[in-house]
Amino acid sequence: MITNTELEYKGDLYPTAVSSVQQEADSVFFHTDNNVILKITVLRDSLIRFRYTTKGYFSNDFSYAIDKSQSHGYNFLELIEQKTFYQINTSKLICRVSKTDLKILLTDLDNNVILEDELGFHWEENYNFGGNIVKMSKVSHDGESYYGLGDKASHSNLKGKRVENWAMDQYAFHKDQEPLYKVVPFYIGLHNRKAYGIFFDNTFRTNFDFAQERRNVTSFWAEGGEMNYYFIYGPQMADVVTTYTHLTGKPEMPPMWTLGYHQCKWSYYPESKVREITSKFRELQIPCDAIYLDIDYMDGFRCFTWNKEYFPDPKKMVAELAEDGFKTVVIIDPGIKIDKDYWVYKEALEKDYFCKRADGPYMKGKVWPGECNFPDYTNPEVREWWAGLFRELISDIGVKGVWNDMNEPAVMEVPGKTFPMDVRHDYDGNPCSHRKAHNIYGTQMARATYEGVKRFAYPKRPFIITRSAYSGAQRYTSSWTGDNVASWEHLWIANIQMQRMSISGMGFTGSDIGGFAEQPSGELYARWIQLGVFHPFCRTHSSGDHGDQEPWSFDEEVIDITRKFVSLRYQLLPYLYTMFYEYINDGVPMLKPLVYFDQEDPQTHYRTDEFIFGNHILVCPILEPNAQGRRMYLPVGNWYNYWTGELVSGKKELWVKTDYDQIPIFIKEGGIIPKYPVQQYVGELKFDEVTLEVYYKLGKEKSFLYEDAQDGYDYNKGRYSFSTFTFNGKENQLIIQQHKEGKFEIPYSKFKINLHGLPFQVKTIYIDNERAAADTIQFNGNTLFIDKDFTELHITGA
Ligand code: GLC
């Protein structure tokens, strides 16, 4: 593998002075004497694209990451010429382009510098491969912080670090390991309380240096392709993240069962073992919705086949598991075994769908089945064929989800652990080498899988999970963080990775709970479950070459803790589902790091452990053995200790005492948290009431509740229910107003309202302006029942 540094270095090249400027609709083109063109496109008033070429013309504009279904539009755009620079004004930003060297300066309308070129755009001709190594450097200020970049296993604030984006199978990775499985070339900068984002949409190997090499410089570069980045202005981090997520796309609603608990291992077989595992969950009353079959379910690791000795009648097994509430998810890898008697291999060979080396032969590499060829998922025809392969698994056998692994792509026993760089790819009609297609390969595999599962699962929703991903993959798939380790350090890493993925547009992610490699102690497993139930994707997985990793592999206490926390997750399903809805609708990250929650407070800039789950629940995991509690930071606002009910004011560090079966959880005052009864799987119970936990606040607060049929697409036709609850607390009264949208008929009739922290004794209760008689609302202590369609609940105190 040739890396940047091994190439013969002939010096950097820079743009010369601007020779002409033209505006065409939303774009302004700046030409220099040395054939550089900078194209600046205003997509929104706070979203600007910068594209550079050194050839005097632009190549075909194609991106897998950008969601083409999203619309953009700006309110205002003007181009002004000044003595030494050109200036583009939008209603939110000013962008100056220097006439002498094409350097960019971005400011807000008050002339506060948001981001400024240091050397700006420069490049180095790539003599070995053609094209350029394209580079960008920006000024980095003292006190500036950096976040984002997907699955990086480093401190959440990336200041002082250099990261590399090259999808890589990293078994048992460690803290600060580079590169990892996913590629999300998007970061958020925070300086002077203003946040901005950069999305460098380039699938070649990229690097980002956040003031590591030079103290006041942040730079990013790619080994080929174009300097092509999007600048997103906040000033709130929330604006940056939602705009980025809008740009690269959002998923559809997942079936609700996918938000339940999943159990996995490499591997559960034969069938009797699978049934033993699922029965044990029911026996111990630990809720569980999904059981996974790892590679051993296949016949010799051939995708789309079954080992009939282990699984003589998969259809019957899958159906019987389904009767007990278990959805079956199976693994499908990209490597197709070279075997002339294997139908998938034969078909792909006949149709010429495998990736080829530059000189013609098929790309051959070893994975689990031995020597394999690999479909070129960057070819739309191949994706279509691949999608069709899922017919039997999904339509006939009844599998509910597909797990895509090894799609970095991973190759065994070779340096670099992947394809040679000369391998050719279609890249949707923009033919290229593996240098360009590598980082997108996994996403295109997951996309093809998604198309297939969606087609055959219809009218139900599909479920896909992938290991490798590039920006935009969230439109098709959920993900997990790959082969982690059963260690306390990895628990810390998992917590950061999930927050980071959330603010990088890919929120539907989880870690292998308990750790994939090595064996967790019961205590570590318990601490991991306690965190994992607050991650959008919640699955225990392990490599199986050590001991077992089912909850009952540990002692009674761990079983009880697992039951308690997984049950809590099931109670919180409507809350989690609502978080998901805000994510797919508005791009709001499901987990919010403290810096996202309050960027004004510098104390949050280097916090790693605490995060907000949804809008109102603050979670802080226990990351050390033998803890009786921990020190943590509570951000701005007043918070109820979930376990004790005590109200604590934030913006301070505090010691929180917790028992072994607890972790610090706080509820933001004013929050209304919906809860379902505990079910052993989604849809197990029919219930007539939903609980609303109401946390009193002096003042106003909004909460939401989204519901639909929990599967299917009717929600797209307006059959959903979205309630906005406005809480308004005064000294001796409180008012909760409900505003409802959508046409979904909710199957339950009432809310059970639990009032927490009321500072007064309840005297009267009015529902929709009518005084409620005690017997109609069953008022009891701080609990009352009320029709689910209420519009106003007004409680006054004595
Ligand atoms: C890879 C995956 C892991 C899986 C194993 C066998 O290591 O990351 O999750 O269990 O392959 O398929």
Automatic annotation (TrEMBL):
GO biological process, one term: carbohydrate metabolic process
Record keywords, A-Z: Glycosidase, Hydrolase
Domain Glycosyl hydrolase family 31 C-terminal residues, every copy: 587-673
UniProt-recorded Gene Ontology molecular function terms: carbohydrate binding; hydrolase activity, hydrolyzing O-glycosyl compounds
Name of this protein: Glycosyl hydrolase
UniProt domain Glycoside hydrolase family 31 N-terminal: residue ranges: 38-209
Superkingdom field: Bacteria
Residue intervals of the DUF5110 domain: 689-757
Origin species: Flavobacterium pallidum
Glycoside hydrolase family 31 TIM barrel domain mapped to chain residues: 251-579
InterPro entries: DUF5110, Gal_mutarotase_sf_dom, GH, Glyco_hydro_31_AS, Glyco_hydro_31_C, Glyco_hydro_31_N_dom, Glyco_hydro_31_TIM, Glyco_hydro_b
Similarity field: Belongs to the glycosyl hydrolase 31 family.
Lineage, broadest ranks: Bacteria, Pseudomonadati, Bacteroidota, Flavobacteriia, Flavobacteriales
This protein's record includes keyword Hydrolase: yes
